[in-house]
Amino acid sequence: MNVKALFGAGLLAASLSTAGIAQAAPVPYEMDMAHSAVVFNIDHLGFSNMFGRFDSFKGDVQFDADNIENSSVNISIDTESVNTFHGKRNEHLASPDFFNAAEFPEMTFESTKITKTGDNTATLEGDLTLLGVTKPVSLDLVINKVGPHPFTKQQMAGFTATGTVKRSDFGMNYGLPAIGDEVHLQIDVEAAPK
């Protein structure tokens, strides 16, 4: 085999190897619900920040450890499960003034694009559907850790996504402007391969 043929064969092998890597499928991961959370905070009359969470949600994570941009996440949140650690306020938040949980029992986030921004950071873009309105949102994503669990030795991955959403964009206008329009979100996910 001459040098030109050898060089060509090497290029072909390299391109096939790269193509195989680029086409590797992400792995389905299952959320560890004991260590995952959807939390938020919002300005209350300028006096304080009110914190809350959603007690019930589920999600689908497709994770490519070698290429985060090939990953995806879909989360469905039970709006009636909103919990601000105050019973009457929780009832009000589930009412038509806010989440209208009877008519819209779920809000969803479906990722559309992940763009790597650093060694363990990325921008997570997706569609948020709330009160029947779908809007694009962008979240800052941190890949906290990927590796074996120190106790079970099972492979795990952990992520934190943060961002701000304007509730008025979805038609949730009650109490504006005294009660803040900007809702600060944090989604923490710990997951293992299915």
Automatic annotation (TrEMBL):
N-terminal signal peptide: 1-24
Domain Lipid/polyisoprenoid-binding YceI-like: residue ranges: 28-192
Protein origin, superkingdom: Bacteria
Keywords: Signal
Pfam families from the UniProt entry: YceI
Listed PANTHER family: PROTEIN YCEI (PTHR34406:SF1)
Protein name, UniProt field: Protein yceI
Species name: Marinobacterium lacunae
